[in-house]
Amino acid sequence: MNIVEKYGGTSVGTLEQISAIAQHVKEMYEQGHHLIIVASAMGKTTNQLIALANQISDHVNKRELDSLLSTGEQKTVTLLAMAIGALGVPAISLTGYQCGFITSHHHAHARIKDIDITNLRHHLDDGKVVVVAGFQGATENGEITTLGRGGSDTTAVALAAKLGWECHIYTDVNGVYTIDPRLYPKARLLKEITYDEMMQMACLGAGVLETRSVELASKYNVPLFLGRALEKDKSRGTWIMEKTKHLEDMPITGISIKDDYAIMRINDLPTDGVFIARLFAMIARLNINLDTISQQLSEEGRVNFSFYCNEEQSEQILEHSEELGEEYSITRMLGFIKLSLIGVGISTHSGIASKVFDTLNANGIRYYMITSSEISISLTIEKKDREKAIRVLGDAFDLGVQKK
Ligand code: ASP
Ligand code: MG
């Protein structure tokens, strides 16, 4: 088989782990598989490099920072290629640039424009295992860029998409759970989840996979597997795919949580939209991505407007709020979390919302803003109700390990 395997920072944190991966690569190679290995920086290397840069200057030059950060992944792939080579398997490491990753010029969050796979092909045709540095590329002018935090997942999926290969992402968890097991110990490991559900889970808080990589996998229909590094039993782990087989019997696939939410409100605005346009221009300048935005028309023909953001962002917005003029004030409510129930079954099953509300009501849990999409229902609830809400909803929707 042709497989792109990706190993995250926690799976390549030590030389022992790197050697164990090399051993696994040797076994796969001997079984006749063709492999590309994508690796992240060892352990907390990326954070340490950022900290170093911040000690040098308060205003770090982004171009230089990208060059610095790219060395984290380079270190892993060179060591891994050496380790694989030492076992008698032909291997070569490539930086993102050498591998042909052509990106936009946006330092620290570059987008992949294309991958020129000429060099990569050449090494694959030579029978080598190619070890590619994740998270990086270069502009057409050869300026080194990085793809944004967690970007190695995207490197791996992009290669798989380009070559039409399968992609296995290996990490320090067994796969995708119905709910984060740290929050709900009974949580069940999902064998399958759709791209759409995974995208919602990823951007609504389940940090196991970078959202962008799932988006890319979905776009190019890349078979995507997520599992624990070096787990021999491949039935443990989660396949992320277009359609799963359990659609009918499971209206809710999982629950995800986003902590530290602030609800921001501006009431009694005129309908002309001038204030809102000003507000959004400011938010764009602050580079804030708002989560849920909602606007209602009151009976008096005025507009009430609200949105969520995290606490830190709400602080930034308030600090700059004088730019918006004095006539309207933003009120902020702190101390919330956002809980989202996700499942492709939501659009086809009736009564899900009422079950959610009945369950919360019966347990004395209050909810504030509610939003829904075809495959999710999200509610803001108070922080103090976090554990209880997860428990009662997890139980109500059978998200725990099934009783035999
Ligand atoms: N090393 C990079 C980071 O820590 C990229 C990655 O791990 O995916 O964000
Ligand atoms: Mg990651």
Account of the 3D structure:
The chain is 33% helix and 26% strand. With 404 residues, it is of the alpha/beta class. The two termini are 36 Å apart. The strands form four sheets. The chain has an eight-stranded mixed sheet with strand order 3-6-2-1-9-11-12-10, sandwiched between helices. Strands 14-15-13-16-18-17 form a six-stranded antiparallel sheet. Bound molecules: aspartic acid (ASP) and magnesium ion. Aspartic acid (ASP) is lined by residues 8-9, 40-41, 46, 72, 134-135, 149-152.
Protein topology:
Layout: E1 2-7, H1 15-30, E2 34-39, H2 45-56, H3 62-86, E3 91-94, E4 101-103, E5 112-115, H4 118-125, E6 129-133, E7 136-138, E8 144-146, H5 152-163, E9 166-171, E10 192-194, H6 195-203, H7 211-220, E11 224-228, E12 238-241, E13 254-269, H8 274-285, E14 293-297, E15 303-310, H9 311-319, E16 331-342, H10 352-362, E17 367-373, E18 376-382, H11 386-396
Parallel strand pairs: 1-2, 1-9, 2-6, 3-6, 9-11, 10-12
Antiparallel strand pairs: 4-5, 7-8, 11-12, 13-15, 13-16, 14-15, 16-18, 17-18
Helix pairs in contact: 1-3, 2-3, 5-7, 6-7, 10-11
Aspartic acid binds next to loops.
